[in-house]
Structures are given as structure tokens and as C-alpha cells.
Amino acid sequence: MRLTRYFMPTLKETPTEAQIVSHRLMLRAGMVRQASAGIYSWLPLGFRVLKKIEQIVREEQDRAGAHEVLMPTVQSADLWRESGRYDHYGKEMLRFTDRHGRDMLYGPTNEEVITDIFRFYVKSYRDLPKMLYHIQWKFRDEVRPRFGVMRGREFLMKDAYSFDLDAEAARLSYAKMFMAYLATFDRMGLKAIPMRADTGPIGGDLSHEFIILAETGESEVYCHKDWLNQDVDAANIDYESDLRPRIDALTQLYAATDEMHDAATCPVPAEDLLMARGVEVGHIFYFGTNYSAPLNAAVQTPDGGQAHVHMGSYGIGVSRLVGGIIEASHDEAGIIWPDAVAPFKVALINLRQGDAATDAAAESLYGKLSQAGVEVLYDDREERAGAKFADMDLIGLPWQIIIGPRGAKAGVVELKRRATGDREEIAPEAALQRVIG
Ligand code: ATP
Ligand code: MG
């Protein structure tokens, strides 16, 4: 992508309304534009990151055996009356009526809709277990939308739902999702710690929040300090095996949100206990028959009876993760994208646009990178070198390849790793191989 043709409206000034670093950097890098309080348009650079995160989430959901669907954003109030949640949900739910006077709402979550789909089609224990998910916009009329996409009113969530014959089987589904979450966040370069959590309004008796530690996080958490170096080995997950022993081993290490933490009974000695703030990036629940009973989602059992299915729901804040990753990975100069979610892999910086030899060298390398399938953003603007460096550090692509008149003459480029700042002068071909590598 040539920067002169792209739409990346970076800002020089730090926006005053942004209180936390990820929000500031997203605005300055031209990733999002606020449309109204807590509601954002995603500009090209931000949208690319959102799509990368979404794709990792999708792949790990698929790997865990869940199937993707797409449910609507606008839902009928009737279903929520059936489940009994319509009156209780409160002001966070955006309610409206259609032209026929029917009560509608913009979905804050999808337990009702998915249960309605399930009960219509699935009638036998033989069709269980099932896990379905979608990645869809939600609306919650938060009292205090803030921190940019971290606490929006409209936000993108992956929500999955599991259906099982009984509690024992439901816990297996829960275990699969638990591991899928660890794998998902691991692939994004995040250390997300699963914490025993309060089940809140969804109800139920088993719940974990996945939290990444960040000073600006809204959750107060307590965990054993060894969580910081715990390796979850997420790449090696066999979803056909019983994952529970592995989860038991992992959760030997204490971690709890403040609602669940009790200093009096905490098993961790004070010197090993980490008190920190964090951002909730995912939340999983097992809630039994709390929805299947009122909505009457039942299947035939092996002995010929009928039973309400046991369900779980599993959310990931896809749009919140964009901010969360930046909170976890940045420096004074800007964002440092982990490779897996970077909007482009390489920034190709032409230091003297208009100089024939430099342009030729840059164009040639741009062609080769594109040919090799490397996502490259070519800074072909007629700008000062300093301004280009500042912008490219701000947007934080993993690699920078810098070409100037001196290097063009000598047949070398400078290759810089954004995360470490390490630089080396090498031949263009060698740089190409390194970034492909
Ligand atoms: P929070 O405690 O942060 O308000 P929640 O517990 O209400 O979140 P869930 O219902 O568990 O949220 O939603 C699943 C996931 O969706 C959360 O783990 C979070 O990552 C994301 N999420 C929830 N609310 C928002 C929001 N207002 N803006 C962005 N992401 C959100
Ligand atoms: Mg939650």
C-alpha cells in the first residue's frame, strides 16, 4: 500500500479528551474516529487490526469445535420477556419500537436468540454437544463510556454458546472454551490470566474472567506472582482429550477478581500475591438451565425422557482487544504491534522521495515485498525524514525498512525492528528474506 494513496489521517497533537494511552494512540494513528459518545467509526488502519483479531478469535473457536453463525443485532423484546430478562436488564439495553408498535431492542448479548434457534432444531441428545458462536456488534448504553474502544457503547464481541445434555458434559465444553481462550490471547501476544469471577446477572455457578494486566485497567485483581511466567503452551492443545486435568494444573495458581477475592481465605502468602489492575478481555460462564428452562429448550434423553439442556456462554471483547493490546504493547514513540495483529508487517520508508536512485531502490523492494505477499505500507510521501520516522514509530508496524540516497548508492537498506529498536544495514535481498522469515 502506498501511503500517498492510503487513508491514514494521523494527528500531530495529542487529543485532550483521551485519558489513557491506547485511546490517545488510536486517535493519533488515525485508527478510529468517534461518531458519538462510545460509538466509533473504524478507519482503514484500525479496521485492519480489528479484522486480524477477529480472524484469530475465529480460528481458535473453530479449532475448539464451535461453528460460526451470524445472528441479528436487532432483536425482539418478546424473547426476552420469555426468558424473564426484559424487565430486569435495565437502562443498558437500548429499546425501541418498530412502525407496528412492536418492542424491539439492540442486542447487548444473545442468549435468548441462540436458545430460540437451538430449541427449534435440536430435539435429541444424539445431536449434542453443540457449540455455536458469532462475531457481532453489541450495544450497551453504558453510563460512562470511556477509554475509547475499551468501554464503548457499541462494540464488537465474539459470543459463543454451548449446549450439553448434563452438567458433566457442559463442564467439558467449558473446558474447551477455557483452553481456546488461552490459545487465542497467546496468539495475540497477550498474557491473559483466567480469574475466578462472579457470575453476575447471567447467573450460574462457574465463571472465569480473562484479564490482561494494565495499570489503566478497570478491574482490580489478585494473583499469584508466578502467573507472570506461566507458560500455557497454547499451541499444543488436543481438544479431543480431556482438558480438565490441564486446567486444574493451571488454576492451581491463584487468580481472582476483587469480588471473589477474600484476604482472610486467600491461600497465597502475602509476599507471593500480586495486587494489580487489569482489563477484562474475555468472560466465560456455565449457567446450567437458566435459559433453557424458561425458554423450554429440551432434548430427548437416552432413557426416553426430556431434559433441559445445560448451557454456557463465552464472550471475547474483540474491539476492546485493539485497545487492550496497545495498553500492553507501546512505548513513548507509539504503538508496538505484535506480529500477529499488526495492520501491516513492514513500513518501507523512502527518505528522499523524488531522488531517482532512492525511488528506484524503494520501488524495486516494494515490488518484491508485494510479490512475496508481505503486507507492506510504503511511505512514499514527500516529507521530512523526521516526520516519517515519527509517523512510522507511532503506527508501530513490526519492521521498518529504511532507504536513503546513501544506502541506495551503496546497495544497502536499514532494517529496524520496532519492538527493540535494533537496526542493521543489510542488502535489500537480505532484508526481504528477514521480514519474510
Ligand atoms: P465489563 O465488566 O467490562 O463491563 P461485562 O462483564 O459486562 O464487561 P460481558 O458481558 O462479560 O461483559 O461481555 C463479554 C466481553 O465483552 C467482556 O469480557 C469485554 O471484553 C467485552 N465488553 C463488555 N462490555 C464492553 C464495552 N462496553 N466495550 C467494549 N467491550 C466490552
Ligand atoms: Mg464480564
Please tell me about this protein's structure.
The chain is of the alpha+beta class. The protein has 2 domains: 3-335, BirA Bifunctional Protein, domain 2 (2-Layer Sandwich), CATH 3.30.930.10; 344-436, Anticodon-binding domain (Rossmann fold, 3-Layer(aba) Sandwich). Helix content is 29%, strand content 28%. It has 11 helices and 23 strands. It has helices spanning 21-28, 44-63, 77-83, 111-121, 167-187, 244-250, 318-328, 356-371, 385-395, 405-410, 428-436; strands spanning 32-36, 39-42, 67-68, 74-76, 94-97, 103-106, 130-139, 154-164, 192-196, 206-213, 219-224, 255-257, 273-288, 298-300, 306-308, 310-317, 330-331, 334-335, 346-350, 376-379, 399-403, 413-417, 423-426. The strands form 6 sheets. Strands 3, 7, 8, 9, 10, 11, 12, 13 and 16 form a 9-stranded mixed β-sheet that branches. A 5-stranded mixed β-sheet has the order 20-19-21-22-23, sandwiched between helices. It has a 3-stranded antiparallel β-sheet with strand order 4-6-5. β19 (346-350), α8 (356-371) and β20 (376-379) form a beta-alpha-beta unit. The longest helix is centred in the middle third of the chain and has 21 residues, at 167-187. The two termini are 21 Å apart. The mean pLDDT is 95.
